[in-house]
Amino acid sequence: MKPTESRRDKIVESEAAAWAARIDADPDAADAELEAWLANDPKHAGALLRAQAALVALERPLVAANDRITTTGKRPLSIARWFWVGGGGLAAAAASIALFFALPIQQESSEPSQIYVTELGEIQQVALDDGSSISIDANTTIEVAFAEERRVIRLSDGRALFRASHEPGRPFQVIVGDVTITDIGTEFQVYDDVSTGIVDVIVTEGEILVESPAGRITLFEGQRIELGRTGATRASPNTGTVSHSEISRITAWRAGRLDLDGETLSEAVTQLNRANRLQIRVGSSAIAGKKLYGSFRINDPRGFADAAGASLGVPVSEYDEVITIGR
């Protein structure tokens, strides 16, 4: 099954960010392999310029993680400032793109922003300057822009768990679409599911304030809410309170696990596909809603597919880097 256009674009942007980091760390990386990647798709050159422009706007390394868990086998990439362009015309374009990235940031913050992009199968643990920290799930993009008056983090299409240091008069805010989550000294997880348009917020410790066009609500430890990205509250059996064991299960992705306790096959496959290049497809709508239980390694799609197939009594096949469960 081919990825959607938006997913394909996100993969291209992630690959471009990795190339920009690689070039910064090692100018000799601009070799035949890079040329082949650029020639593979006309979008690649523009994506690389955007990624490099983002680096130029930063005063600190793009990847400031003090620890990283990765299932891709890649080592962390250090970032310097070295621009690779394929000619004079691209150099001019790169300069204009760098300006485009810098101007919006300066309007909101006196400090440059930092951008973190995780690839499929990659989890980052990031320590921020204010003592806060973020666990970033696979296939997620986060922009951090700290100023004297507030600390702003923008999350797009992904999941992260935030442990915010409390600073009176300088709120820590996570923005997803029209939804703003403000820390009141806490730890919380935010999942922006672009495919459904739902923002899922869980408070694992302390309390937060959630604001949207639908209104304001304060959530405390163990509480959960799901909203549309445009702010409309979504009625759901998941809205309400969750136990400590449930919180541990929901946040098990940080340890590279997928813990299922009644989630459907379709929901489990969505989580696994975020973390792996080897994708899983549900071959029949009749089994998509079947509930599953158990703990699985999130970087082992084949093992999960075999177990799910055996549990549901359906065949499992693999062709062209896609695993199909059911006919």
Automatic annotation (TrEMBL):
It comes from Qipengyuania qiaonensis. The lineage of its organism: Bacteria, Pseudomonadati, Pseudomonadota, Alphaproteobacteria, Sphingomonadales. Keywords: Membrane, Transmembrane, Transmembrane helix. The chain crosses the membrane at residues 82-103. This is FecR domain-containing protein. The keyword Ion transport does not apply. Residues 116-208 form the FecR protein domain.
